[in-house]
Amino acid sequence: MKKSIHNLRYKLDSINNSLYNTFQPLTEKRIHPIIFDTVDRLIENAVESTFTNKSLRQKQKFERLYKKPEQQTETLKTVHNFSNINISQDAINILQKGFNFAITPKRIPVENIITNVEIALTTVEQPIADEIRLDIANILKKARPPAQNVTKRELIALKELKNNNDVLILPADKGNATVIVNSNEYHQKMITLLNSSEYKTNNAVQTEQLIWKRRLNL
């Protein structure tokens, strides 16, 4: 932002110098006052028109940036429990949110933000980089974690599912659903499928050849 302001001021100074260099010869040649006033009025109208258009574009850009996002209806997934354990309603509630649902953090990830900023600033000039660091530091000082988007009971239920090695939580092959299955049964089915006649073991060279054939559509 500061760099943009600096560039804008530089452009304004250049325009002022250009206007001065344009009007100076006119005053020295003693052009008729009517012609001089006409030229002056045309330039003033052009400046005003440019200012109005620029202001309108900046206002529209500002409104787009700060426009509140429309409230979207949350689409809940269906949860199918095919395991031998009982799933609490709190666990079902959080699983219905889907695999793309992100739980809001309890704290601002300051370390990750600073690391990413420093990586991005490796190609930025030192004075500008220092200004950006100062701005980021001020923002992080005022930053507060967002409100929690899950309940405490849902977090506990999710943690219990995560620590339960007897079940697997997977997206369904078809449909907008989540399934819970016994891990032993799932692994056994995978082994049975891999040992069937539909699959065979290949060495690394054969696998590479198959990949290239697939790429070449042979």
Condensed summary:
By secondary structure, the protein is mostly helical. The chain is built from eight helices and three strands, in the order H-H-E-H-H-H-H-E-E-H-H. Strand 2 (167-171) and strand 3 (177-182) form a beta hairpin.
Question: What this model shows, in words?
Answer:
- The chain is mostly helical and 218 residues long.
- It folds into two domains: 64 residues, no CATH class; 138 residues, no CATH class.
- It contains eight helices and three strands.
- It has a three-stranded mixed sheet with strand order 1-3-2.
- Helix 3 packs across helix 6.
Which features does this protein show?
single chain, 218 residues, mainly alpha, 2 domains, 3-stranded mixed beta sheet, 8 helices, 3 strands
Assembly classification: single chain
Proportion of strand residues = 5-15%
Q: Count structural domains.
A: 2
The largest sheet, given as strand count, sense and whether it forms a barrel, is: 3 strands, mixed
By DSSP (H or I, 4+ residues per run), the number of helices equals 8
Radius of gyration: 33 Å
- What percent of the residues sit in helical stretches (DSSP H or I)? 55-70%
User: Strand sequence of the main sheet, in spatial order?
Assistant: 1-3-2
Structural class: mainly alpha
Question: SSE layout and pairings?
Answer:
Layout: H1 2-28, H2 33-65, E1 78-81, H3 89-95, H4 110-120, H5 126-142, H6 152-163, E2 167-171, E3 177-182, H7 183-194, H8 204-215
Parallel strand pairs: 1-3
Antiparallel strand pairs: 2-3
